[in-house]
Amino acid sequence: xxxxxxxxDYKTKAFSLGGVDYITKPFKREEVIxxxxxxxxxxxxRKFLEDEVQKRTLELEIINRQLQVEMIKARQAxxxxxxxxxxxxxxxxxxxxxxxxxxxxxxxxxxxxxxKFKLKNQGEIDKQVLEGYIDTIxxxxxxxxxxxxxxxxxxxxxxxxxxxVDLNLTVRHVMKIAESSFDKSVELDPQ
Length: 191
Description:
single chain
């Protein structure tokens, strides 16, 4: 702005109204040219800085989008890893269940095979021995039913009810199965 006033209040008011510089009368041509040149340079620098800010903002937006894509990929990779770990756990569980169920079936098929063999080769079987085999079959069948119940309970996500197990009884059952299954030359000692 150009003013004939040199009072500070007028200058302050002019700046508050949007003035960026001032020249007081009487002014000199060289001073006006120098001030105009300075303001043109300031305008050029301002435009340069605004362009740089816009350019950097665009670069940051591109980097931000790339980062978001990478975060999505990382999340998907994490989900894939978790799924793979779940599948590995399910495989391990299935293998363990198959092993346990195979042991239970051995407690059923083993005594049945022995009874069938004795009946075929000897024509008869001692009633007490037969009842022992039947008991083993019943107990193994009960274990199978119990295992299936536990699996169904787990699949329904119900709360499990834990019950005490008589380990001595379990060992006796295993011994009966083993005695029936192993060759008579194998001696078993549960102690």
